Amino acid sequence: MGLDIGTTSVKAVVFTLKGKVVSESEKLITSYYPKPGWVEQDPDEIVQLAVLAVRDALGLANIEKNEIVTIGLSAAMHSIICIDGDGNPLSKALIWADGRSSEQAAHLMEEDGMNIYAKNGMPTHPMSPLSKLVWMKETEYEPYHNAQYFLSIKEYLVFKWFNQRVIDFSMASATGLFNGKTLKWDDELVEKAGIKKEQLSNIVPPTKVLTGLEKAVADKLGLTTEIPFVIGAADGQLANLGIGAISKGEVAITAGTSGAIRQFTKGFKLSENHETFCYAFTEDDYIIGGPTNNGGIALQWLKELLHYQGSFDDFTNEAERVTPGAEGILFFPYINGERAPLWNQHARGNFFGMTVTHKQEHFVRAVLEGITFNLYQIAKALEYSVGEPEKIYINGGLSKSKVWLQIVADVFGKEVYVSETHHSAAWGAAWTALVALGKVTSFDEIKKNIPMGSPVIPDQNNHETYLEIYRKYDMFAHDLKKYF
């Protein structure tokens, strides 16, 4: 089983050893917005949702509890919770989308941005727990001053279920307090946050086996106390693993509400202009990439704005009525602020090139193309460190759109591969657990165990057209930066 704690939901997925989905259960997470720019989630609510998801997935699989070999864990990055000495939360979980530390992030970047990035491989941004901790320190945030520990949501779940404070390399990387070269908590960064190393968890590899599940928890889950869990990693690393994008030249794009483009690499590598992150997965393997705030959320925004009453699929299919380039409209998809490639929470979206002849379908195509150009721009930054991509793998909700998949293939000029299951992070977590227990020999072996559909082939003429359009997009995107 893979247990994947995302931003919008908790998913528990039961797989065969060949990667076929046996059953799945998804429970939606409530986000709270106490003030403009603040985004919080309830850690106890998420733990309870995880219990329900695991229990329901087991029930739907119609199997005995001893038939589950192991459970691997995956989680979204950048959450932080203040915890007391008894393991109780003093605060809600501040998640990656929380922007309350914008001022602190800007000050950190101005004061010491080059040095911070050189240590932690994370462009300085309000998503970072480092920035959030500085905000807590400077605003006299009471839970911060009373906290015994600071944990991410996955650490909190592990603490509750196993009474252990451990964090894997990738989730540690996502705190901004972790040194990507030494694979240890960094003294200088921890000091900037105003906390002590003892308040952070012990750092372990993704293959760390967790045993001794609390009896009360096991009963609620419908499992035995003997079942081995494996700590796994962050959802980004595991999504790459779960879709098979693990070799040189293989790039994975995740496109759901937000999005990301990532590639595995050997060693700690940084981009020249702080455009990409580099987070550890194992002692040798790192993932380099860039997250965008604006994936499917931009399309959903347009659908609601236009009061479109049909299905999401019908709405995206409107784009097929328009030729590549949307007859001159360019869309810069920064409607939710932006992480990569701008790293500016104050960025704002724009349409350029509108005329009275443009209709609904033009705007749909422009939004799909804008999302793709933004990802392509991040991919160009990746090339500085890892070279040009050779093959594109895609997962996430937008991967269900055939018209968008064709746009991606045409913009990148590469074949696009999509797994038959969209649970790549959960399968990556489950596979990591199998590696940890010695049930399979290596991470690479997963490539033989991913049900993959036929590739989407790029249209070379469209690719040449898109390269011309992208040159204009890239020029305007760089000009726009100074206005945010």
From TrEMBL:
Q: Which PANTHER family does the record match to this protein?
A: GLUCONOKINASE, SUGAR KINASE
Tell me the Pfam families matching this sequence: FGGY_C (PF02782), FGGY_N (PF00370)
Q: Carbohydrate kinase FGGY C-terminal domain: from which residue to which, for each copy?
A: 252-436
Family of this protein: Belongs to the FGGY kinase family.
Q: Which UniProt keywords apply?
A: Kinase, Transferase
Ranges where the Carbohydrate kinase FGGY N-terminal domain occurs? 2-242
Cite the InterPro entries for this sequence: ATPase_NBD, Carb_kinase_FGGY, Carb_kinase_FGGY_CS, FGGY_C, FGGY_Carb_Kinase, FGGY_N
Which terms does the record give in the GO molecular function aspect?
kinase activity; phosphotransferase activity, alcohol group as acceptor
What is the protein name given in its UniProt record?
Gluconate kinase, FGGY family
Q: Name one GO biological process term.
A: carbohydrate metabolic process
The chain's coiled-coil residues are: none
- Which organism does this sequence originate in? Litchfieldia salsa
